[in-house]
Design goal:
Aspartate Aminotransferase, domain 2; three-stranded mixed sheet; three-stranded antiparallel sheet; 7 helices; disordered N terminus; disordered C terminus
Length: 269
């Protein structure tokens, strides 16, 4: 992805590997609705001969866990200006195989979101086809500076991993069970099981739990699992150990106020 000191280009293209690369399935390195890490590498060996083309969605994981196009070839990689880049929403960008991009001419069903046409426009005159979100660009420029000064991919991965470890341990001490095992947990968002009423969890009422935390500045998310009641807590963003431990303190106080039997704890992992 091209970056210039005076002004960064937020839509880029380039050869991703050695020409068009096809996979057996669309790759998604992280199931962001539950927080599961899903490796994208295993398809690579035989995938060059397969259809459909691999399109990796990376808006959570871009700039958090490195993807090496030399070892994990792809046709296109999508990301956005927010999430792990810690900018604001409003810009999507793609790193794409040029040959595949050229073959996509005329395929777009949207005038504004025609990636191939936008790429050709940038190549021709360096301009956006429509009025760009300048405030989002300015925010992204600052976010990329902060990303660099914060240690890049390694620094951000370390901070998010630390946040995740603190959150998982603290919540388990409060009696909540993570849905995922630690070895498949991505440090993005953690899904927790809602306490089972038949096992002493009758005190838990999600709406009351959510509202109580929200009133004190802690925002959580309802679960997205169909087979199990759950809720989710994020690990990413401009937060660190101090914020994670404050959140756990507030959650612990809320649990006790609702009649939960577990005592809150903040022992460091």
């Amino acid at each position: 992805m091209a970056r210039e000191s005076a002004g960064r280009s937020c839509t880029s293209s380039g050869n991703a590997g050695d020409g068009p690369v096809d996979y057996r399935r669309r790759g998604r390195p992280c199931r962001d609705h539950v927080g599961a890490a899903e490796p994208v590498g295993p398809c690579g060996g035989s995938g060059r001969r397969c259809r459909p083309a691999a399109s990796h969605r990376r808006h959570e994981q871009l700039r958090r866990i490195r993807i090496d196009a030399a070892t994990v070839p792809f046709t296109s990689l999508f990301a956005s200006s927010n999430k792990c880049l810690e900018g604001v929403p409003g810009i999507g960008f793609v790193i794409a195989d040029v040959a595949a991009l050229e073959r996509a001419k005329g395929n777009a069903v949207s005038l504004a979101l025609d990636l191939e046409a936008q790429w050709r426009g940038l190549e021709a005159n360096g301009q956006w086809r429509f009025t760009p979100p300048t405030h989002v660009l300015a925010a992204l420029d600052c976010a990329l500076d902060q990303f660099d000064t914060g240690g890049g991919v390694a620094g951000r991965f370390a901070r998010y991993s630390r946040n995740c470890a603190i959150l998982r341990q603290g919540m388990m001490e409060l009696g909540f069970s993570p849905w995922l095992d630690e070895d498949v947990q991505a440090p993005i968002i953690v899904t927790f099981r809602i306490p089972d009423a038949s096992s002493g969890g009758g005190w838990f009422r999600f709406d009351d739990f959510y509202n109580s935390l929200h009133e004190r500045g802690i925002v959580i998310y309802p679960g997205k699992l169909t087979a199990m009641d759950s809720f989710r807590i994020g690990c990413i963003g401009a937060i660190g150990e101090v914020e994670m431990r404050r959140a756990l303190t507030v959650i612990g106080e809320t649990v006790r106020a609702m009649g939960g039997s577990r005592k809150g704890g903040s022992r460091k992992p």
